[in-house]
Amino acid sequence: MTNDGTPQWGQPEQQPQQPADGRQPTAQQQYEQQQYAQPYPMYATPAPIPVGPDGAPPLWAPWYGIGFLDAFTRFFKKYARFDGRASRSEYWYWVLANAIVTVVLIGGFYAIIFATVVGSERVDAYGNTVGGSAPSPFAFVLLGLWFLWWLATLVPSIALGWRRVHDAGMPGAVWLVGLFVSVAAIVLGCLPSNPAGAQYDRPDLG
Fold it and tell me: How distant, in Å, are the alpha carbons of 37, 67, 90, 138 from that of 97?
């Protein structure tokens, strides 16, 4: 409070700790106490995540700093697990892998359609478009493979987003917004990890 009685808001000053022998701390000791004191005691340091002999965390735990191939295989290992958490690298590496497969299959479908149908058309002397062969059956094979891929990855994709929201410290149901709003999915996928998300871990499930 100031001299005129007006309350003064702000973080309370930390009192230097007194040595056990009753002596006053030196200026250097006071500086070190102020520098290295915990400014936010309400945020406890999260417990370390255990790892197996291969260096990979168990399936119930998030894997921070995971690589592309490990994220791809872990996605299918945790096929329909809505418990636990997923790190940002787990989420975005899967988004990348899914995008690659989709571009190859859908891009191949359109490329074959364009090459076999549009490429074989011609314009006659009267300006009419004639010709054009039937689409190659292989184009529909690619389209069918993409549909099977989408169907096989639908549930684990939802589960991955559910766990990503858990890692941000929020209920998994928040991810339902990301299913219908693309911008929300991007924002939720970019949220930093929150130690409070450990409440959603289920070590008992392995």
Answer: 44, 12, 11, 23
* Torsion angles phi and psi, residue 121, rounded to 5: -80, 155
Mean pLDDT by 10 residues, the chain (206 residues): 50 50 56 46 56 87 95 96 96 98 96 75 56 75 96 97 97 94 94 95 90
Q: What distance in Å separates the CA atoms of residue 105 and residue 160, rounded to the nearest whole number?
A: 23
| Rounded (to 5) percent helix, strand, coil in the chain | 55, 5, 45
Query: In sequence order, what are the beta bridge partners of 17?
Result: none
Give SS3 for 42: coil
Give me the phi and psi of 134, to 5 degrees please.
-70, 150
What pLDDT does residue 38 have? 45
Please report the pLDDT score of residue 126 as a whole number: 58
Contact residues for 8 (Cβ-Cβ < 8 A; gap 6+)? 1, 2
Residue of 204, 200, 205, 203 lying closest to 174 (CA atoms): 200
* Pairing of the two strands 129-131 and 121-123: antiparallel
